[in-house]
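re: that complex we talked abt at group meeting.

here r the seqs, copy pasted straight from the sheet so there may be weird spacing, ignore it
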Amino acid sequence: MTAAITAADPMVPRVARVLRRRRNGPQVFTLDVEPEDPAPAFAPGQFSMLTAFGVGEAPISASGDPAEPGRLVYTIRAVGPVSSALTRLGPGDLLGLRGPFGMGWPMVEAPGRDVVIVAGGLGLAPLRPALYRLLAERARYGKIVLLYGARGPADILFRNEIESWRRRLDIDIAVTVDHAPPDWRGHVGVVTRLIARADFDPLHAVALVCGPEVMMRFAIAGLGEAGLADDAIYLSMERNMKCAVVFCGHCQFGTVFVCRDGPVFRYDRVRSLLAVKEI
Amino acid sequence: MSPTDSTQHAVVTPEGLQALFEALKRRNYRVIGPILRDGAIIFDDIASVGDLPKGWTDEQDGGHYRLHRRDDGALFGYAVGPHSWKKFLLPATQRLWSAERTEHGVAITPEPRPSERFAFIGVRACDLNAIAIQDRVLIGGAQADLRYQSRRQGAFIVALNCGVAGGTCFCASMHTGPKASGGYDLVLTELVDDGEHRFVVGVGSEGGGTVLAELPHRSAASEEVAAAEAVVAHTLANMGRAMYSDDVHDLLLRNLDHPRWDEVAARCLTCGNCTLVCPTCFCTTVEESSDLDGSRTARSQRWDSCFTMDFSYIHGGSVRATARSRYRQWMTHKLATWWDQFGTTGCVGCGRCITWCPVGIDITEEVAAIRGSEPS
Amino acid sequence: MEGLERIVKEHPFFAGMQNAFCDLVCGCARNVRFEAGQYLFHEGEPADWFYLLRHGRVALQVAVPGRGAVTFQTMAEGEIVGLSWLIPPYRWTYDAKAIGLTRAIAMDAKCLREKCEADHDLGYEMMKRFMPVLIQRLQATRLQILDVYGTPA
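got the structure back, here u go
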């Protein structure tokens, strides 16, 4: 007797169709996709497993608006075979989709407090759903500060959107680049230097940090110097991931699984792990 | 005797054991047990009691495994070999799904749930604990590995109270053996020393009781029950190794930068043998395959090992690039972080990782070395 | 000049400094402004003045053959432009250019060095204020060198 496995099998993807593909920068593309079955809701900071059929599967954070039903958005940098294949998909192409998975940003803890978002490089993508949510429910929060660092001006994600947010008067935005061509008129220097310049109340603020691990370590140090407590800082971790449901063992980060206990962690809960090399 | 009364014990002969195999086959179980092949005692299909490694024992030490003749006809007179039951419950490779590109899109077909039902013969206490640990990992969380679940739920387990402690065994100090304490349908203790060759049988489930009732058996005499207890006591007293494990979680986690990791890394070949033979190691990876024109694709799962560089690869490099960090990951996971992740140890003291390590790295020795030289 | 004194005291760099030290420092200070595109100083020139920015933004640049003036850091309101005046041979190692209209307190470096030499308590006070700036710049430079957003080969 063989029992058919239903869609409840966590390892089996659903099929989704690409609606739109936009280029965001060198090797970085954003796909809007629509699952054939109704799209599962996701929380800001959660990720999905995306399959390029015949190539493989990779964890990708949702980067779209959590309030927009029926459409899931993923911003992908082509770095390996799977992510490269995914970024080559165009409108009408099909991909596999599992998830969403994991613990997202602390949208519940944040109301009433200032929110400082520190993003580096592609790290802005997993934070964008949080920004959408914050701006949609703007009155519930104190000051909102976005500090964003990219390698160079060409690498800045979501430029038009950042410009439209800048025109709002209820969010402070500072963008900096590590390397600038002569025609760049914005900030130059690492994103962590923006923290000291930002205006927020460190005793009543929560910080959301996402970017390369080294950048996050420096950013956390900067937020600490600015007066934020360790339990007011959240960061999104990245590890190798094959299953996203704890079976495969790959995303272990010391005592925790990034897929189950993260990817977003409160800093005080992983502080000791971040201090250990190669853990 | 009531078939489900676990306080009562029965006695069966080797012929009764044969009847057990037949009873299980009648129920469409695939009967798996120890057999001798290629110089080792492994697990595979057994047709009859004659397939069991009668009169053999093993000699085990760090990086060392040899078979010897015993001077009696014991059927289970050896410790565990390189195989564990995960070979059947969590196969080394299995397909998860296949997909076909059609005119209308892509159709994904999940691989059917396995229908095979296993009867495992001679599951030792360490391995019963290992199965319980894999249960927690693979079916005890928010999501269940449905394939593992099917195999696990269908399995019939005939446990064995160990009559021999191997040279690398340390279940006693891990509080996991040598006596089976649950998680079985029937449990055997082999009596071979004097008189008739026989097994004292205990019942662990209703199904076990029903099967036992079909076998030629008699009630155990109190001396036989005592003799069975003595077998376990003798095994307990002859453990090849010991690991004091009560403090090991904190001990390892406060010594992640102990110089001993460098010493063991200098010996470790990062071959991954320990992860293959370990009955609790559950890590897997996935592989994609496709036909030439890409219209049919499939995803398979296979065992992976934290000793490979690929295991922790994220764009640009591996998180654990050194042998030191990979050995540390394996050992601290087994003994420490497993507690944080799953509320249990990941080590059952079976000793396989010691025996099958090509350079004889000994997890009990590593723990002792760190405990004995903790920087103050 | 009372206005200047207030401005100096209000600058974050001198936050909480004793009045006596403030008076000494103010004697070396003056108010300056730079139009967009104007240089505060050039590489190789004597480091006679340094600047505490009050408004605007300043690009620190090094001329690289074939690439023109490469900006490696921008400084904003509340920050300090120029550290080379602290150590011999007191010469700038980069260009500093105002990106927009920039207002700053200019400090006479020679004046301040002499006062610090004469009054080591003042010197120590200044050192405690400069050292964190130096360390933060060093850390930022380290992170910048790592090129963390770079796509690995």
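couple things i noticed - Confidence is low (pLDDT under 50) at residues 1-7 of chain A. Residues 114-236 of chain A form a domain with the Rossmann fold fold (CATH 3.40.50.80).
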